[in-house]
Specification:
about 500 residues; alpha+beta; five-stranded antiparallel sheet; 20 helices; globular; binds fe (ii) ion
């Protein structure tokens, strides 16, 4: 994977630690867990209990570590991410108490709290107690503030969602973190597919552990925000496209699965099946798989075998369980088409599994937009979607196709476009309510490319005059798209 290793270089440049030090980050996530865990303990044991007192003492210990200079701790929640003292807090896994805390804040309209050091640690205990009290449904931040006053709780301020929501610098931190995380997960997934494919080629038994962990990370990221991952799928110029194709298909499939409200277990199974839908190709002659031109009859004869080979490889390479069986079914069915006009040819009509119907949409979209598989030239995404919706409509589950288009938009993240303002932009993310007016990153204009980018939401009133004129082919436009997808250029100052 020569080109993939070039890609990893891009990754290392970008994945350096940003902002807070590792120990600061640890303290931040520890204090968050305590902050949301203490009210839960309190619900069970009461204020005079030693466990509660011990947790409160630990909270103050962490508090002092974090706030040694200022004596003030702020916790803010912006678009599902926590910021501790204005720095994004990295949480590897959300505990149930944290999840509960987030939904409680959302329910009350709380966007953040500020805690100033006060010798009366009783105040804090009372605050936690107040947080656990049942409030009327429809309770507001105002009522919480009144409760603080009524109970003479000092040193604590509550912010509403609106008060913290306008903080552009925190929003930008979150955006960059999502993008960095997406890159890390994407390249890790490529490595795992590469390793497993090689093991499968050598007919070795494969351990599920690393695959499960990478699929879990992909699921987490897609659930939270899939735009940054979808943007990664826009890069198509890998020497060996097979691995990137598998990861792309996995990302698209998971984004459909999330919209169909599949639970985490199902999403993991779907992601696993998508990553290995083409595993049968490793056993085909390499000159067929990598053939740049149009296939002849003999190439097709080979290619038609990969679904059956893939199903067999999965069943023999992994310890068999329901996830592996589902993946084997997908590998076998993914070129059959819903109208059974594809291959392998069957004498009886076959109903395709839900996973196959999802993965077929994702697979075809990636194959046609990349232009690497079976065809000679990539087709712009909007034309691919049109083709899938009309000329190929009998091959897909229509509902799933519509869910996919609704999610990815007419201009998928990562696409290079020319705007009516003569500016060149990369699509940042789709606006589901206005599919023709996404959020874009302006990377250049008629005078050339810039070293800074500008974020523009085309769905807003202020930008309603600007429209997308057409897609640009990065190669023909001589633009290295990787520079704008694998790196984060600074935002231009207004
Ligand atoms: Fe395939
Ligand atoms: Fe495929």
């Amino acid at each position: 994977m020569n080109n993939a290793s070039q890609t990893f270089e891009y990754q290392t440049i970008n994945e350096e630690a940003h902002g807070a030090s590792v120990s600061e980050m640890r303290s931040s996530s520890a204090i968050l867990k305590l902050f949301f865990g203490i009210p839960k303990t309190l619900q069970v044991v009461g204020k005079d209990n030693d466990t509660f007192k011990g947790q409160l003492a630990k909270f103050w210990e962490r508090f002092c570590e974090i706030t040694s200079d200022s004596g003030t701790l702020t916790i803010k929640l912006i678009e599902g991410r926590f910021f501790v003292n204005e720095s994004l807090c990295k949480i590897t896994r959300k505990t149930p108490a944290l999840e509960e805390g987030i939904s409680r804040w959302q329910e009350l309209g709380v966007g953040g709290v500020e805690i100033r050091y006060t010798p009366e640690s009783d105040s804090l205990a009372m605050f936690f107690e107040a947080l656990t009290q049942k409030t009327d449904s429809g309770a507001t931040v105002e009522q919480l503030r009144e409760m603080l006053l009524d109970n003479a709780i000092h040193g604590i301020r509550i912010f509403s969602v609106e008060e913290v929501g306008d903080d552009q610098s925190l929003k930008e931190q979150r955006r960059l973190q999502m993008r960095r995380q997406a890159r890390t997960v994407f390249f890790k997934s490529m490595r795992v597919v590469n390793d497993i494919t090689s093991n499968s080629f050598a007919s070795k038994e494969i351990k599920l552990k690393q695959t499960s962990s990478v699929v879990r990370s992909l699921v987490d990221q897609v659930i939270e925000d899939d735009s940054a991952l979808v943007e990664m799928t826009a890069i198509k110029d890998f020497d060996d496209y097979t691995f990137a194709h598998s990861v792309n298909v996995c990302i698209y499939s998971l984004s459909i699965g999330v919209k169909l409200k599949l639970d985490r277990k199902r999403l993991s199974q779907l992601g696993f099946a998508a990553l290995f839908h083409d595993i049968g190709k490793v056993k085909l002659p390499v000159e067929v798989v990598k053939k740049p031109g149009v296939f002849n009859e003999s190439d097709w004869a080979h290619m038609r075998n990969h679904p059956a080979i893939g199903a067999k490889s999965l069943l023999t390479s992994f310890k068999i369980d329901s996830q592996v069986i589902r993946a084997a079914i997908v590998a076998f069915e993914h070129h059959m088409n819903i109208d059974n006009t594809g291959y392998p040819v069957r004498s009886n009509r076959r109903e395709l599994s839900l996973f196959t119907r999802i993965i077929t949409v994702a697979d075809t979209f990636d194959a046609l937009t990349s232009g690497r598989i079976y065809i000679t030239d990539p087709i712009p995404p909007i034309e691919v979607l049109r083709k899938m919706l009309f000329r190929m409509q009998n091959k897909f589950d229509h509902l799933i196709l519509k869910v996919f288009i609704g999610n990815i938009g007419l201009f998928p993240a990562g696409s290079l476009v020319l705007l009516s303002s003569s500016q060149v932009a990369v699509i940042e993310r789709n606006n589901p309510m206005t599919p023709g007016a996404p959020v874009v990153r302006i990377i250049g204009d008629r005078f050339g490319l810039k070293d800074e980018v500008e974020l523009l939401d085309l769905s807003t009133e202020a930008n309603s005059q600007i429209t997308i004129k057409r897609f640009l082919d990065p190669q023909q436009s001589n633009i290295d798209l990787k520079r704008f997808v694998y790196k984060d250029l600074p935002l231009a100052k207004e």
